[in-house]
Amino acid sequence: MKENSFVSADDIRSAFSAAMSRMYREEVPAYGTLMELVARVNGETLSADSAWKERLEATDSLDRISEERHGAIRLGTPAELSMMRRVFAVMGMYPVGYYDLSTAGVPVHSTAFRPVGDAALKRNPFRVFTSLLRLDLIADEALRAEAEAILKARRIFTPGAMELTGQAEREGGLDKAGAERFVAEVIETFRWHDRANVSADMYQRLHDAHRLIADVVSFKGPHINHLTPRTLDIDQVQALMPEYGIAPKAVVEGPPTRKCPILLRQTSFKALEEPVSFRGADGGWKAGSHTARFGEIEQRGIALTPKGRGLYDRLLDESRKIVRPAADGSNAGEYGAALAQVFEAFPDHWAEIRAAGLGYFSYSLTEKGRQAKMSVCLAERGRRDLDSLIADGLVQFDPIVYEDFLPVSAAGIFQSNLGDGAQQDFVASPNQKRFETDLGVAVLNEFDHYAGIEQASIEDCLQALTAAVA
Ligand code: OOG
Ligand code: NI
Question: Which UniProt key words apply to this protein (predicted)?
Answer without folding.
Answer: Dioxygenase, Iron, Oxidoreductase
